[in-house]
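Each letter names a residue; structure tokens follow underneath. Both lines appear below:
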Amino acid sequence: VHVQLIAPYYATYGSTVVLHCNHSVPDAFLHKVEFMKDDKKILQYIKDRKPPFVEWRVDGANMEYLENGTTIKLKDVRFETSGSYSCQVSMTTPIYTEASEPVQMKVIVPQTENPKITFKKSMYVVGESLEANCTSSAAHPVPHLTWYINDKEVDITLVNHYPHTRQKDQLMSATAKLMIEVSALHAGENGYLEISCYSTIPGYPINEQYADVRKETVSVQIIPAPIVVTSSQSIARGWPMTALLCILCAMHKIIP
């Protein structure tokens, strides 16, 4: 018997979520379908019972269900609706019950804007320290910030994550500071360093997908370090070649 709960991993705050219990039991042998949240029943359907449905309260949502007992709708979901959902199906012949794998669903408030990158200046000399801050817009849960330089992820040892900033309606924003010493390799051939900040929910993708992704990229001009010239080199550059030759000849006569 195949039983699978089809449900989203993420749901936007205030939206309607559809949960479908997909199973392979023929209708003639179907006895019961149940939906659970955090291992507690929220809906029970028994085909031959009158009425066939018994429902329980779902925190943070209003529940509706279809007549065949395999699909429910959670309307106007709130943060409390987040949790582990599953379903199970029972047969009459033979007497058998099979449960689905649970699906962890999270109610989120997506970001409304791209993250903001701020730094002291837009031009740096090779060897200088570059400091930049990235701040996400308010969301729930708090976004995770990741720095990239020229499309390569920055080592976490160069990043400092500040405490989250609480906003209204249980939303939070994140700020992370990047500190690097600028090198000639950063500039590349065009003389510019490209800094990107990714703001994601969650911090790492589930099934290679994020619930919410925002990105900001800025370019910083990199100037080569000035060439250090010694005093003797400076003097030599200030004299014509003929004058230098005369001085050397005179010194040769004085010093046998």
